Amino acid sequence: WLEQLEPEPGLTPRPDERELVARGELLYAEAGCDGCHGGELLTDFEFHDVGTGGLRKTPTLRGVGQRERLMSDGCAVGLAQRFLCGGDRHGDLSSFEEGDLDALIAYLETL
Asked: Whole-prediction pTM value?
C-alpha cells in the first residue's frame, strides 16, 4: 500500500539554484545513479548489493528529498548522510570534487 502512494512533487529550484541543479543532474548520470534509478519511476525494480548487507530492491527516487530516513537499513537521516552509507558500491562518487555533492543533492531534491 505505501509503495502505491504518490510522493509530493520535488522542490522547484529557485532561479539562483538552477545552475547548481543542472550540474547535479549531470553528476547523477556520471556517477551511474541512472543505471538503477532511471526511467519514469526512477527505479529498475531489480535487486542489488549496495554495501548495506545484502541484496536490496531499488527504490524509486521520486520524492527522495522529502524522506527522513534513507537507505534500506535507515542508516541515513537526510540526503547528505546518505552518501556516508554504502560507499562507492552505491554510486561512484570517488571522482567528485568540492561542491559536487551539494549539486547532486540539489538535483535529488527536485525529483
From this structure: 0.82
Give CA 77 to chain center in angstroms.
13
Task: Tell me the β-bridge partners of 70.
Answer: 76
Strand partners for 89: 91
- As a whole number of angstroms, the distance between CA 81 and CA 77 comes to 6
Q: Is 12 helix (H, G, I), strand (E, B) or coil?
A: coil
pLDDT in tens, the chain (111 residues): 556 656 566 777 787 889 999 999 999 999 889 999 999 899 999 998 877 678 989 989 998 988 888 877 777 788 888 877 656 667 777 788 999 999 999 999 999
